[in-house]
Amino acid sequence: MQPITVKIGPHPATLVPPGVARAYEVLSAQQRHLAAAGRVGDGYLLALQCAALGLCWPVGQTWPAPIPPRPLRLGDELVAWGEGVCEGLLAAGHDVELVSSAGAAALDLCLSRIPRKIEVDRAMGNSEAPAAGSSGASSVSAVSGAETSAGGTG
Fold first, then answer.
1. Closest CA to 65 of 84, 49, 88, 46
2. Residue 136 domain flag
3. Residue 141: partners with Cβ closer than 8 Å, 6 or more residues away
4. How many CB atoms lie within 10 A of CB 101?
5. What pTM was computed for the model?
6. CA torsion, points 26, 29, 35, 39, in degrees to nearest 10?
7. Domain housing 98
8. Are the C-beta atoms of 99 and 53 separated by less than 8 Å?
9. CB 114: neighbour CB atoms within 10 A?
10. Residue 134: per-residue pLDDT
11. Domain count, the chain
12. Which residue, 30, 49, 66, 101, is most buried by CB atoms nearer than 10 A?
């Protein structure tokens, strides 16, 4: 995916994709939105877009509102966090259409981090086959040095 640059406020920012765990949280929230079609309004989508924008904002780049969003911790409710991000941007005087547009681009960037089935299928064939007569399931513990293999300790 090509770099995505958005401009909210005086300086453009090139968005940074989040980690895969955060991307899955965004995907889950988007799926809840799609499943609840007609039961949740546009505010949910706007909050989700703002959450994505907050997740993708580059470290060291000035946030376009006087108070930057608090860090999102894994387990926090993503859309509620995004609502706070949205409120801060709108309170700073940014146009809702501009915020939504930038958030939509960030949402697409987040979703681009989710491995696609074809990529997973390709990766499945990239591991070495175990040696003949071996299950290939063994490892050495870094703590005790004990070797484990399929079926117990070795």
1. 88
2. no
3. 147, 148
4. 14
5. 0.74
6. -140
7. 5-117
8. yes
9. 12
10. 52
11. 1
12. 49
**Is 122 among the domain residues?**
no
What amino acid is encoded at 110 in this protein? Answer: C
Q: DSSP labels for 90-149?
A: HHTT--HHHHHHHHHHHHHHHHTTSPPHHHHHHHHTTSPPPPTT----EEE-TTT--EEE
Give DSSP secondary structure letters for 133-146: T----EEE-TTT--
Contact indicator for 56, 15 with CB cutoff of 8 Å:
yes
Q: Model confidence at 26, in pLDDT bands (50, 70, 90)?
A: very high
Give the C-alpha separation, 14 to 3, whole Å.
7
Separation between Cα atoms, residue 144 and residue 152, nearest integer Å: 15
Across 46-66, average pLDDT = 95
Q: How far apart are CA 11 and CA 57, in angstroms?
A: 12
Residue 146 lies in a domain: no
Q: At 83, which amino acid appears? A: E
Beta bridge partners of 40: 37
Place of tokens 């040095």: 145
Task: Find the Cα–Cα–Cα–Cα dihedral 114, 119, 124, 128, rounded to 10°.
Answer: -110
Residue 36: inside a domain:
yes
Q: What is the pLDDT of residue 121?
A: 62
Residue for token pair 């988007």: 30
